[in-house]
Design brief:
mainly alpha, 8 helices, elongated, MtlR-like_sf
Length: 204
């Protein structure tokens, strides 16, 4: 069952570090797996559930769909989740606030230092880290889908445009026809490369 922003918000309202850490990171990991699957060609699907969190985040970064700046907080939240999951004494906090903040992305650290936005308590800092990391991953999924949809629309437009261009009425056995075809192929290839370069620039 896929989580939503509302699910994470309700989870944070429990103010239970154990639940926020274990269930919150599970939602982050699930979203990260979905992001990877979205980025991979359908013929190259991998069983992401068997991969470690560290490998998953590296794979997402390598695919160009996740920022390297968020790697540290994903790994840190994974370690906190593991500590809570295997710790019998739940009264013992398995992380230091300073270490958690240090693992955050630059954007997260800038926000967490603003007292107006985030309470200074450990639970609030953990909640902030889980919520903002989850939003980052899910927003990347949305962005990737939008880019892909835009790219498909562009190609569909080009295809429709080419299909609507009337075929030239030239004697196919003539030298002029052969020269025309060669010139057309060169112009189409040049135009295609230009379009692809433009799409890549927009994606990055």
């Amino acid at each position: 069952m896929k989580s939503s922003n509302e699910d994470i918000a309700l989870l944070i309202k429990t103010e239970d570090p154990f639940k926020i850490s274990v269930l919150g990171f599970s939602a982050i990991e699930e979203a990260l797996e979905q992001l990877i699957q979205e980025a991979l060609p359908s013929a190259h699907k991998v069983e992401t559930q068997r991969l470690s969190p560290s490998f998953k985040v590296d794979l997402a970064i390598g695919l160009g769909v996740f920022p390297h700046d968020f790697k540290g907080i994903v790994i840190k939240l994974s370690k906190i989740r593991n500590s809570y999951a295997h710790e019998f004494d739940l009264k013992v906090k398995p992380f230091r606030d300073s270490e958690l903040i240090a693992a955050m992305s630059k954007e997260q650290r800038a926000s967490v230092t603003e007292k107006e936005d985030v309470d200074s308590s450990s639970c609030s800092i953990l909640s902030f880290a889980v919520l903002t990391t989850y939003i980052e991953v899910t927003s990347r999924i949305t962005h990737f889908r939008q880019v892909r949809a835009s790219r498909v629309k562009q190609f569909a437009h080009i295809k429709a445009l080419l299909e609507e261009i009337p075929a030239p009425k030239i004697d196919q056995s003539s030298k002029h026809y052969n020269e025309y075809c060669k010139d057309l192929d060169e112009r189409v290839e040049k135009r295609r490369n230009s379009i692809l370069e433009e799409i890549v620039r927009k994606e990055t």
